Amino acid sequence: MSNVKKWEDNDNWVEIDLDLCEASEECVNVCPAEVYIILEGKVNAENIVECIECGACQDTCPYNAILHHFAWR
Ligand code: SF4
User: Structural domains in the chain?
Assistant: First the structure.
């Protein structure tokens, strides 16, 4: 069973496969909008409403743990 968690702001949403996530913090560091934080050893996109849809997090994750759907990109 997959362990995917979703955060959303209308049509802008991000799904993170927490089984793949190693909390290496690449997304935390690359995101210009401070969407991500690490909580209990896993990434959390709790500030999704701040996302500017640049795509950097998805492109940067070395574990392909992030699937991002953009509202207007
Ligand atoms: S798309 Fe850009 S702004 Fe949005 S969460 Fe990813 S890195 Fe942050």
Answer: 4-69 (3.30.70.20)
| Both tokens assigned to 14 | 């991000």
**pTM of the entire structure?**
0.92
Q: Classify residue 40 by its DSSP letter.
A: T
Looking at residue 16, its pLDDT comes to: 96
Distance (angstroms) between ligand 1 centre and the Cα of 68 equals: 9
| Positive/negative CA dihedral, 68, 13, 11, 53 | negative
Q: What residues are in contact with ligand 1 under a 6 Å CB criterion?
A: 30-33, 35, 51-57, 68
Q: Whose CA is nearest to atom 2 of ligand 1?
A: 54
